[in-house]
Amino acid sequence: MTPSLFRMLDWHELIEAERQQPGARVFVSDYNGGHPFVEEFLGELADTSPGRLADITRYSGLDEDVRLRAKIAAVHRQYDGADCTPRNVLPGGGSSSLLGTFATWLLLTGRRRVHYVPPVYYKLAYLFRRMGMEPVPVARSHAYQPEFDLRLPDERTVLVLTDPVWYAGRRVPSTVLKTIGAWQQETGSLVFVDGTFQYMRWDGERGEESAAHLPGDLTLRMVCPTKYLSIHGYRCAHLLLPERLREELAELHMNLHGDVAVSDRLFAHRAADVMLGEGNGALIRHVRDRHRVLVDSGALSARMPVEAGFFLFARPWVPHRWFLAMDGKYFELDGHPGYIRINLLNRPGTEALMATVGQPAGQRVGRQIGQPTTV
Predict the structure, then answer these.
(1) Model-wide pTM > 0.85
(2) Pairing relation of β-strands 311-316 and 300-303?
């Protein structure tokens, strides 16, 4: 077994307990964060009751909504140039429900040992622990690190991969994905890509390397439009998967989770329309602006470069115990003392960090990894 993966769950439980206490420290690693584009992204959902937009007397099924599945397939043909059809799409009510379906499917199909590239999202670790599954790491470091030491097993198995590595906003390098893709072809192994933060690239490009380098007939990839738009009060996500697995997983998902609220189905359509149209470029520019303001304030003594998403992994120039924050142990990461995850969209958190500038905390040095600069 991998004790560090399951110990990570204990840390998450502790921070969640403190987060809910009155008067808790400012949570700079917060899950939530606002932005000024909510109404623009929501369209008519921003000010119209779902009852005026759909029949609320009926169950609202996502998977039976062929028009939605066709839209999602069109998104991935447009973004990735993928040969994607509605038969490769399984929509669901958020990433957590799809992770639950995937883990249950592994259990029901007799898979008790799963390999993974660290880190994995804590909910998947929770499911593995509760289901008595053995997760086996195939590396000691994370894929974006120079010392990444990938050791793929010489057997047919299931591999879980997270891309991008969300807490640091770092994408899995194409060389790593090519290696994994070749290994899949050689061993027939199935890869599950947790792509919850995909399509949030800071370079403005839309395509994802995992779509280009991993064989579609051996890969399941989870995509989360609620993260893409950073509107988490609605719930939708989808799996891109081989056609041969779709009906089996769709049936399991429906029986585990049932239908979604009609508002979530309407949002899933709206999110697909935004992806097919103007996209989330305005949101990404806003995240980059928030990053620049935080860096320019001098509140950080070190930081990692960011490529995607809205999280930054950095070291405040005051001790991070001043805040409620997630450091490396929450992500199975060694090294990087004092580094914490920072939600760039969470204004109270970033403002609390910037308010520390000028507070006594020893010598003040600002640097981005690999680029030392004395301030």
Answers:
(1) yes
(2) antiparallel
